[in-house]
């Protein structure tokens, strides 16, 4: 059996390692998007002016050579299932890149995300190459503007301000961390920004800045940190997409077709995918899931999408349709009937892909499924963590729900920091999300409280 892994970041590396740990002795190939050994991404922003290259192998997370993985140093251009004209390859997968085409029995998509870039002359910070380029442009005398006040934007603002440069930070939503977590959280970050000398603008970044305009200093460097989207431009099969453009997988890591059925031999791990929760699992997360929610196969939402930003080295397929959809790719067009062009629109039934810990857990689930082992008893809650302004931050749970409701948290002082807890309105004793500041013990407790049980039937 041959397995192809698209992406060599934390999710791709851990998928290969988990496969070997589960006894898989077949051939594993991995397509490398950056042509370098797997490294940790958080240090790119928090250690921008020191040593930000931290290899994952140094933490014992795996080494492709030691795992016997063949690494192909080219991004995948197309991933597609067998063609009816190639019967001998039925139920197998084709992976095309600049290297010769490979045919495998299963594909694991672990391609991660790519930054959204909308501002002229703005620089991204997503790869080690981006970090080298950005660091070379900034001096302690620089004026740096950062568009985007999410996790990356705030962490980068803290790092650059500590280096001595003048930093101004813009947030289109008027809030920090990319979500409306309430006035108490915003005030906390505003205080940190003020003490660090970061100028905060609760508005969208202006498209034009003119020298001499009193409200702004013309920047030496403009960094865009306004978000990212899953990097899936190489996918040439009809699949289900979540509202944020991620692949939808079941609790076993199998990519779902638009009708809700698992696609044989196609898996996904990391933040390129969101997990569909079966109704009985979703009810454990929120009692707000309506009892008459239609089944996947009957929820056909019309939409038109231009797809994800272009994946490096590929053209990007357009996805359009209601009852029918056309998927156009390199030298190939596939027409899909039924509700194949539908998105999963109900986020109450989706566990959104998260950061580091979610990548580890999803890789573990995928490897277990491929090796025929039972799935996990628990799914970890989404989690984001950061070091910024001299503080250790963690946010766990369904923060997209509290952001939509704009609910206020309960604030608890700990021996070392603070904890903000948002509770389910229908069940005041049930937390929906927890934000911890310099409180590692409470972070561990929140992980246990917010994990999601998986019924035995869904683990098989």
UniProtKB/TrEMBL annotation:
It is an enzyme of class 1 (oxidoreductase). The keyword Lipid metabolism does not apply. Residues 2-277 form the FAD/NAD(P)-binding domain. Its cofactor is FAD. Its EC number is 1.18.1.3. This is Benzene 1,2-dioxygenase system ferredoxin--NAD(+) reductase subunit. Pfam families: Pyr_redox_2 (PF07992). Residues 433-460 are annotated as: Disordered. The lineage of its organism: Bacteria, Bacillati, Actinomycetota, Actinomycetes, Actinomycetales. It comes from the Bacteria. Signal peptide: none annotated.
